[in-house]
Amino acid sequence: MPLVTSTEMFRKAYDGGYAIGAFNVNNMEIVQGITEAAAEVRAPLILQVSAGARKYAKHVYLMKLVEAAIEDTGLPICLHLDHGESFEICKSCIDGGFTSVMIDGSKHSFADNIELTRKVVDYAHERGVVVEGELGRLAGIEDDVNVSDEDSSYTRPEDVQEFVEKTGVDSLAIAIGTSHGAFKYKPGQKPQLRFDILEEVEKRLPNFPIVLHGASSVIPKYVEIIDNNGGNLADAIGIPEDMLRQAAKMAVCKINIDTDLRLAMTAGVREHLTAHPEHFDPRQYLAPGRDYIRELVKAKLINVLGCDGKA
Ligand code: G3H
Ligand code: 13P
Ligand code: ZN
Known about the structure:
- This protein is of the alpha/beta class.
- The protein has one domain (7-305): Aldolase class I (TIM Barrel).
- The protein has 12 helices and 10 strands.
- The protein has helices at residues 7-16, 28-41, 51-57, 59-73, 87-95, 110-125, 157-167, 195-204, 220-228, 241-249, 259-275, 282-305, and strands at 20-24, 45-49, 77-84, 100-103, 130-135, 140-142, 145-147, 171-174, 210-212, 252-257.
- The mean pLDDT is 96.
- It binds glyceraldehyde-3-phosphate, 1,3-dihydroxyacetonephosphate (13P) and zinc ion.
C-alpha cells in the first residue's frame, strides 16, 4: 500500500466522533514503537516530521523508515510535514513524497498568512497532497521558536470561514489553550481548554476537520521514571486526557503528540542505563525506549483518540 492522504481518515473520524493520532518521528525506534502499537489495534496513523527532524535524520531516511513501516504493518499511513514555515520547505516535502504538509503562517498577519497558505495549497493540490493551515498562536517551544504566553493568542472564530475559503486548506489547526512542550501550564494553574471557541469554530465550519497541536498529556508514569533517575520535571503539566477525549468527539480530527513520545523514550533509556550502567550496546537501552513508546501509543489510540479498529 502506498502512503495515503488524511482526507478519508478525517472524514471517517469526523463522522465517527474520534480523532487520528499524529505522532512526531525522528528515528527508527520511534517509528517502530508507534507503528507496532497501531498495527496491534488496527489504527490509521499520521506520522509527522518537523524541520528539526529532517535536519537530524535527513528526509530520505525518514521517508524510507515510514515506507518500511507500511510494508511491515499494512496500515494506512499519512506522512505529514509538521510546522512548515515557508513555501520552500513545503515544496521540498511535497516533491519528496509526503502526502500532507502543514504551512504554519500563524506568526504572520492574517492577510500574509492567507497569501502564503494559498500558495502552498495551489502547489500541493495540483500534486494530490493535502494542506493543514493554522490560525491563532500556541504558547511553548517549536524547534528554535519559543512563543511566550504573552505572544500566544486564541483563534478568533470570526476569522476561520474567510481563512478556509480564501486559502482552500484541507484542515485547520486552532489555538484553544494547548501549548507545545512539557510545561503547558504554570505551577498551580489549572489546565483549561476553550471548548466554547471550538464550538464556535465548528458552527462556522460544518464538517471541517480541526487540528489540535500541543496535545501531550505529560503522562506521570514516564515523568516519574525520568525524575527518579536525575530528571527535573516536577513542574511539568500536560493536557488532561478527558479534555482530549471531549475534543475528539467534537470537530477535532487530528491530535498532535510529540512530548509524550520523548518522555516515554527517555524514560525507557534512563531506567535501563540506571539499572545497567555497564551496558554499552545501544540495542540494549534503545529497546526499552521503544517498548515504552509502543505502550504509550497503544493506550492513546484506545483510551484517548478512540481510533482503534478503524484502519
Ligand atoms: O511542535 C513541535 C514538535 O514537537 C516538533 O518539535 O521541532 O523540536 O522537532 P521539533
Ligand atoms: P506536544 O509538545 O504537546 O507533544 O505537541 C506536539 C505538536 O503539536 C507537534 O506539532
Ligand atoms: Zn505543533
